[in-house]
Design brief:
The protein has 156 residues and is α+β, with helices and mostly antiparallel strands. 32% of the residues lie in helices and 28% in strands. It binds adenosine-5'-triphosphate and magnesium ion.
Length: 156
């Protein structure tokens, strides 16, 4: 695992790299907690952001890097005046994020006995929690940027 901090003219950037096995997302969650604490997000918001970080990292480990521990998931935390931006990058082909449904039938899913219905929560949770998302295919992988307003007002 690698952690370092870069300051460019615009913003402060903290980079974490984790090998692609489940459990390593906890390092990103812990870092998220300490940064959101320093940036004075509310306790509730800190917990939500940590959850989004966890889901994005697990997806990158599982679907992006396919549990290949030689491949790292890169997590970049950038502070700007308005946002905390958290970018999660993997080496996979990505997927059409904009085509993913914004809504799922939560009750139906919870009550379902079908195996495939048990999965598919991560992106729903991420979409609910973030203030803005940018997903982008890179020439070597896939990037998901999640933006969290620094003065968050609940939209739900
Ligand atoms: N980083 C990624 N790279 C490639 N495909 C992805 C990535 N993240 C998500 N996907 C695709 O989007 C689908 C939905 O993701 P989502 O996190 O909602 O559900 P899941 O990972 O299948 O299940 P759950 O998160 O509930 O355990 C995944 O099954 C996968 O096909
Ligand atoms: Mg998932």
């Amino acid at each position: 695992m690698k952690l370092h901090s870069i300051t460019d003219s615009m913003s402060k950037v903290i980079e974490l790299q984790i090998p692609s096995s489940l459990g390593n997302e906890k390092a990103a969650m812990d870092l998220s907690d300490s940064l959101t604490n320093n940036l004075q997000f509310s306790k509730d918001r800190q917990a939500e952001i940590k959850t989004a970080v966890s889901e994005a990292c697990i997806n990158a480990i599982e679907h992006g890097n396919k549990f290949d521990t030689d491949k790292k998931v890169q997590i970049l935390f950038r502070e700007s005046k308005k946002f905390l931006e958290i970018e999660v990058i993997d080496y996979g082909d990505g997927f059409l994020f904009d085509k993913h449904p914004d809504q799922i039938n939560v009750l139906k899913k919870i009550e379902s006995n079908r195996r495939e219905d048990l999965r598919g929560w991560g992106l729903y949770i991420i979409k609910k929690i973030t203030d803005k998302i940018e997903a982008q295919k890179l020439n070597y992988g896939y990037s998901l940027k999640m933006f969290f307003k620094r003065s968050h007002k609940r939209g739900y």
